[in-house]
Amino acid sequence: MALLDGPPALRLDGGAALARLAAAGLPTEALKAPARSLAIEVALDRDARGHRITVRQSGADTAPFAQVIVDPLTGPLAHHGRRLAGGLGLTGMPAKAIGDLIGKLYALALAEDAIQLRVDPVEIDESGALACRAAGFGLDRMAEFRHPAWRDLPIEAPGTPLERQLLAAGAVGAEVDPDGDIAAVVSGAGLMMASLDILVARGGRVRLMVDMQGLPLQGAEGLAPLIEPAAALRPKVMFYGGRFNAPVTDGFARTVVAVHRKLAVESPVYTWVDGNKVPEAQAIFAEAGFIVCDTLEGALAEVVAAAAG
Amino acid sequence: MAILLNRDTRAIIQGMTGKVGSAMAARFLAARQPLVAGVTPGRGGATVEGLPVFDSCHDAVAECGVDCSFVTVPAPFALDAVYEAVDAGIKVIMLYIENVPVLDALRMSRYARARGAWVLGPNSAGCASLGLANFSEMDERFLTAGRIGVVAKSGAMCMEAAHYLKRAGYGASTILSIGGDAVLGTYHGDALAMFEADPDTDGVVMVGEIGGRSELHAAPVVAGMSKPVTALVIGRHAPRGRQMGHAGAYQGEAEEGFAVKTEALRKAGAWIADDITGVGETMRRALGNA
After folding, report:
1. What residues contact B130, with CB distance under 8 A and at least 6 apart?
2. Are residues B168 and B271 part of one domain?
3. From the CA of B261, how many Å to the nearest CA of chain A?
4. What is the CATH code for A161-308?
5. Do B111 and B152 belong to one domain?
6. Does some domain include residue B3?
7. Does the domain spanning A9-152 belong to CATH 3.30.70.100?
């Protein structure tokens, strides 16, 4: 499974989560004589292109009794309910009750833009009566525009304080090695990963990697808030790089130089830029005393050597 | 011929009256790409960069014979935009925008595939069949046309792969950014199958990354190909569980990581490059042994 259970999700748990179930008409009152206690999860599976519904023993991360993939074009079908009930060994009213429950949970997951909805425990008795006793939602932060109330949720954004600061600036940062001595700011998620791989493969110890996302297009106003916290780390060596399709490379260079001057950062700075307005950008970097490299691999090799020196 | 885009392509921009849409229109026209119109609901009759704007994709298809759309509408409207393009009969839809809800991405992906249309993205840098049609943020002045296909999630990796192919003496047939979000409309294996069927492509560079299983699903496709595939999975040294730029680039389970994916591709017969700077030379060795 490749469930979307990573850091981008927002969490909704406890009483607030159970209230969502109750508001959706799901039973939440404890049963007098529960026969079984289950965990039911509705989770978006990115690779199956559907929601995976899984039934397990309550409180355990054991192998599921049964699971099905629900196509978003159809939603849950009767046979999904039969398969899940069959996996639990249920027949009659309890089997029907499970089928009804997964239909309601799926609808709730969609309504709430939940990447993951886990109800644990789900009590069930011999008559088929059910009770959802606790629940947790992983919410898709990209869907916040559909759920204004999410802004009031007590949510802690993922990541370190520096990563959160970079995220607030519109960039993506990853603190890799707290003892690292290299900080790199690059254009593009792919370049962020590819550069990190090359630096580490050559023996570099990387403190921070940053993907600037689209901020170079916003000029100094957009770029400076991300350059400043990276430069303020004052690592042993800094690297700035990117292949710019838009004619913004000179503006990028000007902003980087201005931030380094403002913060009086003395770390050696290595740069590699390609694309549009490259001579202008290289001249700005060179005039500021930064090292200008002609190739990505050459730049990363020099960065590692400088950090080791 | 290439894949997805060719010399007969006629494209629209959905959201062309917006800031991003109008900027991309100017860019595509300056590069002499076959952009013929735009679509913005409620803005029919307007013009952008001298091109007509229609109220709907159906109107654009009827009036201009459109078969491709570059989507720049804000994320809340992306699902409806893709549904409309598919229903109008458009077969190649490039979702340039990001921050699309995953549920919407899931729905549009399934809807398009069920109707024979390809969605690239969300968060795709677009697609370029060099010398034929280029609807991407990749500047063709820095690329060289040739006979190697390139597929990557990242636009940056598309550009770097094409650059290192060029340094090794090879040009690209089609360069395809499938997007960096967690749920995508088109996966690596889909692109490989298209390149295998393309008579103008002799080999493929495939850049994968941590997160998801697109690369694992591509492995059986690689194994069945007659053309050599050079593969690279980036994110080997990314901290576990940390998002690496793309919304979909974080490793949860081991199968979503570098080692498992790389080994699967190697076993399938792909030529594994050590890093992005090595894809050109690796492709040279692969073609020499093909």
Report:
1. B2, B140, B143, B144, B145, B146, B171, B172, B173, B174, B175
2. yes
3. 13
4. 3.40.50.261
5. no
6. no
7. no
Contacts of B234 in chain A (CB under 8 A): 190, 193-194, 197
Least confident of A16-20, A106-110, A301-305: A16-20
Mean pLDDT of chain B: 95
Find out whether B35 and B45 touch, Cβ atoms under 8 Å.
no
* Same domain membership, residue B52 and residue B176: no
Same domain for B188 and B93, yes or no, is no
Q: Does this complex have an ipTM over 0.90?
A: yes
Query: Known catalytic residues of B?
Result: 246
pLDDT digits (tens, 9 = 90+) for B159-182: 999 999 999 999 999 999 999 998
Q: Which of B154, B91, B90, B149 is nearest to B125 (CA)?
A: B154
Provide the shortest C-alpha distance from residue B197 to chain A (in Å): 24
pLDDT tens track for B8-58: 999 999 999 999 999 999 999 999 999 999 999 999 999 999 999 999 999
Structural domain that includes position B150: 143-289
Burial class for B16, CB neighbours closer than 10 Å (0-12, 13-18, 19+)? buried
Asked if residue B99 has pLDDT above 60, the reply is: yes
Same domain, B245 and B193: yes
